[in-house]
């Protein structure tokens, strides 16, 4: 697994864990950076992804809710919510990776970790966000 793929997976783990434990994801990130619970500390890329989602949380959730066509955030599987938040951050706000690469990475994680329908849903929603990106202020 490539370093950036691992970093995305660790960011996903943090968002998912925070939701399941009902703790603030920004605070959980700070704790993990200060005192890692794994052999390898969190990468800078992992921290950037989680921090970016936290910074743009409201806008990201509004966009996901707007373009998810019949799926409320609450109705989505928890792992899909986390994947979509991170994927939306990466395609809308990050300039490190081409949008198509970012979408492919998040679809891959959805394939590995979520339902059979999730990869298609993640691909479609992130693709739609890329389409409307130029119209967002």
Itemize the secondary structure elements and their pairings.
Layout: H1 3-21, H2 25-34, H3 44-55, H4 57-67, H5 78-92, H6 99-113, H7 118-132
Helix pairs in contact: 1-3, 1-5, 2-3, 3-5, 4-5, 5-6, 5-7, 6-7
Keywords: RNA-binding, Transcription, Transcription antitermination, Transcription regulation
Pfam families: NusB
Domain NusB/RsmB/TIM44: 6-129
Structural summary, described in words:
Residues 6-129 form the NusB/RsmB/TIM44 domain. This is Transcription antitermination protein NusB. The protein has 137 residues and is mainly α. It has a single domain (3-135), classed as N-utilizing Substance Protein B Homolog, Chain A, CATH 1.10.940. It is 71% helix and 0% strand. The protein contains seven helices and no strands.
Strand content: under 5%
Describe the biggest sheet? none
Alpha-beta content class: mainly alpha
Average pLDDT number: 94
* Overall outline: globular
Low-confidence stretches are: none
Task: Give the tally of structural domains.
Answer: 1
Compressed to H and E, one letter per element, the order equals HHHHHHH
Distance between the termini: 35 Å
CATH architecture: Orthogonal Bundle
How many individual β-strands? 0
Please, how many helices?
A: 7
Please state the CA-atom Rg, rounded to the nearest Å.
14 Å
CATH class: Mainly Alpha
CATH topology: N-utilizing Substance Protein B Homolog, Chain A
Keywords: RNA-binding, Transcription, Transcription antitermination, Transcription regulation
Protein name: Transcription antitermination protein NusB
InterPro entries: NusB-like_sf, NusB_fam, NusB_RsmB_TIM44
Family: Belongs to the NusB family.
